[in-house]
Amino acid sequence: MSSPVTMVFIDLADSTAAYAELDNAQVADVVSKVTQWIGRVCEAHHGRIIKYLGDGVLAQFAAAHDAVEATVFMQQSHTERLQKWPPPLRMGLKIGMAHGSVVHKEGDTYGDPVNLAARLSDMAGARTIWADDAVIAQLRQSFPRGQQSPDRHAGMPVVDKVRYRSLGLIRVRGLSQPQSVFQIEWSEDASSDRMTVRGALQDLTRDALSPGGSIALAWLGTSRVYAARDLPITIGRIPDSGFVVSDQRVSRTHARIEFINGAFVLSDVSSFGSWVRFTDNPGSEILLRRNQCILHATGEIALGAPFSDFSAATVAFDVTAARTAPPGAAATRSLFGDSTQS
User: Fold this and answer.
1) Residue 340 falls inside a structural domain
2) pLDDT, tens digit only, all 342 positions of the chain
3) Which of 84, 178, 236, 319 has the lowest tally of Cβ within 10 angstroms?
4) Residue 315 is part of a domain; what is its CATH number?
């Protein structure tokens, strides 16, 4: 088995509809030209084409940051180009990537990262990049906070300027366990509701229902479900924490989650603060500095750095209430006297 690599699957969305509406030869010519262009972009970013699959391309990269740079450049360039094409030919790119060990045999490549990259590409919408947690872990290792990636490709975006966000745990067809999935943001114009997708954390909480409900937490490859009776728990970087987030910006004991009067309450006890946002209102962020808020429905908690810092340690949460729904975000701020937003 080879050293770990990043596998990328790029697929043209809506090609079937294009064939149905236009002359087959015309569509086939466009598809061929786009996939060949994708191949050249991959090679320019130190990637290797494994195979062309009709309207899809499977590529391999030794480094995750090269894969991200290549796919971001693809989305930016192809999206701009599509504006000049007739509507039936505006086939966006659906991109999935996964990192891990693969096997090369008879000119082909096999392994879990190949299968997962293909599944993520299939699940992602047009003009979207999805990555597994192993890709994000590689980015974190390669480019710590504040470090710039080498600008080997003049005029092309560098990884340090690309933000990503957790989509939580998502069920992937063919895999027994939910996968921690991230969306890589390549456009400043991407809308928040498109960038924040409710994951399948709620699927995990159904098995942990208790009289007081439950809360599920996920960070990179780690996920846990806590019933109300299991609380309080702490979140921090030390091994004794109830939920461990091993990031240097996370305090030894960073936050605490308690079940108080039928609600899940997050208390910040850190040196640098915590930020909370909810899926139903992603544009509004609550800054916590030694104060509290109620967690409800689904959302994310950024520890030690705001969401605007793409490298911030971000924990996804999903609350399952057994009886009555907890107050909304506005009621939370009113209850605890917290009107501060980032």
Assistant:
1) no
2) 567 999 999 999 878 778 888 888 888 888 899 999 999 999 999 999 999 988 899 999 999 999 999 999 999 889 888 888 888 888 889 999 999 998 988 778 888 889 999 999 988 878 889 999 999 988 888 765 444 444 443 333 334 556 787 777 777 877 878 888 888 888 765 443 333 333 334 444 344 444 568 999 999 878 899 999 999 999 999 999 999 999 889 999 999 999 987 788 999 999 899 999 998 777 778 899 988 888 988 999 999 999 888 778 999 999 986 544 333 434 333 323 343 333
3) 84
4) 2.60.200.20
The region, left, alpha or beta by phi > 0 then psi within -120 to 50, assigned to residue 14 is left
Q: CB 140: neighbour CB atoms within 10 A?
A: 15
Residue 306: C-alpha distances to residues 50, 74, 106, 168, 313 (Å):
39, 28, 47, 18, 9
Q: What is the largest CA-CA distance in the chain?
A: 66
184 & 241 share domain: no
Q: Which domain holds residue 317?
A: 201-335
Distance between CA atoms of residues 80 and 245, nearest Å: 39
Structure tokens at 136: 């994000």
Q: Are residues 90 and 119 in the same domain?
A: yes
The secondary structure of 290-316 as a DSSP string is: S-EEEE-SEEEEEESS-TTSTTSEEEE
- The C-alpha atoms of residue 134 and residue 10 are separated, in whole angstroms, by 18
SS3 label, residue 342: coil
Distance in angstroms (rounded) separating the CA atoms of residues 159 and 293: 33
